[in-house]
Amino acid sequence: MPTVFESPADLKAAVGTHLGYSDWLTIDQQRIDQFAEATLDHQWIHVDPERAKAGPFGTTIAHGYLTSSLVSHFLPQIIEVRGIAMGINYGADRLRFPAPVPVGSKLRAGAELIEAEPAKDGSIQSKVRVTIEIEGSEKPACVIDSISRYYAA
Q1: Could you tell me if 116 and 90 are in contact, meaning their C-beta atoms sit under 8 angstroms apart?
Q2: Is residue 131 domain-resident?
Q3: Is residue 49 a part of any domain in this protein?
Q4: Is the pTM of this model over 0.85?
Q5: What's the CATH code of the domain at 133?
């Protein structure tokens, strides 16, 4: 269940709060190959399982940008803002890939609300630090400060 805010203004009181976790998602070779097709990034460490066996990771790994793009999948499982006309992805301030994601890994995201302030356009701009974890790994796959803007209904 996501953490629910009844209005964008309610975000301000929750700064510093850990919002919870998403469900686990398995990263299979089909998803990696589809991402390679969509982005035209066919580097062998992602799409050539035979060659990758002899590579630095012993198997194919997910693209870093594939991992970061999953924020759009994970965040709705973690946070819901009601009373809005619309919400938009405004960007990101920080993006790091501390650990590779081997094919077959299970990922989930945890999220912390680190900022929520009025923006000049009348929206509430929030910054959520999303940490994408790899099941069984001490290091996360990705840490990203995701910025959203919420426009009241």
Answers
A1: no
A2: yes
A3: no
A4: yes
A5: 3.10.129.10
Tokens of 67: 């991992």
In a domain, 45, yes or no: no
Residue 40 lies in a domain: no
Cα four-point dihedral sign 97, 98, 102, 104: negative
Please give the Cα distance from 60 to 5 (Å, whole number): 39
pLDDT for position 60:
98
Question: Residue 66 burial (CB < 10 Å; 0-12/13-18/19+)?
Answer: buried
- State the chain's mean pLDDT as an integer: 97
The set of residues, in sequence order, having a beta carbon less than 8 Å from that of 10 and lying 6+ positions away, is: none
**Nearest to residue 33, comparing CAs of 103, 135, 96?**
103
Cα distance between residue 113 and residue 115, in whole Å: 6
